[in-house]
Design brief:
The protein is mostly helical. The chain has one domain. 81% of the residues lie in helices and 0% in strands. Helix 4 crosses helix 8. The radius of gyration is 18 Å and the shape is globular.
Length: 207
Amino acid sequence: MIYLLVDNTTGFMGFIYDIIFILEALGHVGLAIYTFVEVLLILPPIEVIYYPLVQLNTDTWYLYLLNVVFFNVLASGFGYFIGKKFGYPVLRFMASEENLEKAQNLFKKWGVLAVGLGAFTPVPYTIVVFLAGISKMNFKKFMISGFLGRFPRYVLGGYLLVYIVDGINSEVLNEYMLIMSIVGMLLVMLYYVFQTFYNFYKRNQQA
């Protein structure tokens, strides 16, 4: 099933390949655009463009690293304020006040760890960014913990491709990253769909 989603000829999400190839051809500009948008929307991770560009330009791979880090930080700050201003009213339709309050309290308590792990792992970072804004997490702590999670991730990935791993197929790598990210996106979407229906049912029962 997942293969059918990401296959570049049969999958209905195969159009992502075309977008990725276009942005790859734009080099630093394409990487900057995708990096900024990826933080704000639930999309395949930045590595689907970052890794191939690093492979093609191993002598100057650190410039792509700086590009990714800079625009990631910029988009994270922007996403935080979007979540702070608009995130709560949107989530209010999906969850009860009680559940939202619990989630906010948990995020306030474990926010730094949650942001750091969310930034380092392949989970959709968009959710972490918006939750940080919704819970009104300290902005400096959010930015620092996000940077400390994402910077090592991109350094490690770029370094492995340039100095450790030799001859890895970028198409195979892209497909793997797409599969992992789509699985994560589907799980998140399913959770919120079921949560929305459950809350709607619960409210009708109480009415």
